[in-house]
């Protein structure tokens, strides 16, 4: 009996050692280094306490803006992709749309492409002088709509949001479609017998039964939003100036300059933000389920 209990443990041991050695241990070491002055210009590593963390939140630095941009990107990205994903999922499961599989494939296709490739492609599409969008606008006499999409403070972040939504909405759509297909048709038939229209069925049948699906994609979108790097790096590299910089672009910049301690400090803060927000979301959901 004892052998049978231990036998499955051996299958997880290799993965556990791999995870502890390559993820958990380096993460703990990174948090430890955030309390030092570790850099590329000295062989000595000295303990400095909370100095790096205080520097992040003090005035006169761009770190506060990077944190604000990270939260802004996460909020807008999560809301946009979740809303569009639900809308497209409902549309592409309705009877009025033909060739549903083809449309689903076209919407989902950007998801399988690399963020870096998409960033480089859209950087050319949105180029102010030779980009496809501005050339097309000028060709049809709409010159006044042509903009410096990635170089103007008013449009840079909006352009990033649009590209991110184009890439990520398909994944949310497919997850929601799976959730919609799991809802029994009898619920909708009963609602129709009570005289419910489209919006009533959506509000009182679809949304409540999709709650767990929506929570799952929201948590995934939030963790992605906080970890975003390659899309912003390839599109604007945090510019113009530092206006579209986020925590991970700041981490990359600090490590590039040899300020390893500050890079690990920002990474540690990012980890704390993700853990706290994920905890509160799951806690709030758990409390509502208990009340119900």
TrEMBL record:
Compartment annotation = Cell membrane
Q: What GO terms in the biological process aspect are recorded for it?
A: transmembrane transport
Q: Which UniProt keywords apply?
A: Cell membrane, Membrane, Transmembrane, Transmembrane helix, Transport
What is the superkingdom listed in this entry's lineage? Bacteria
Its record classes its membrane topology as:
Multi-pass membrane protein
Give a GO cellular-component term: plasma membrane
Using the UniProt record, give the first listed, main subcellular location: membrane
Q: Does the keyword GTP-binding apply?
A: no
- Which Pfam family name is an example for this entry? BPD_transp_1
Which regions span the lipid bilayer? 12-35, 71-93, 105-122, 168-188, 209-229, 260-282
Q: Which CDD domains match?
A: TM_PBP2 (cd06261)
Family indicated by similarity? Belongs to the binding-protein-dependent transport system permease family.
* Protein name as it appears in the record: Sugar ABC transporter permease
Q: Which organism is it from?
A: Hungatella hathewayi
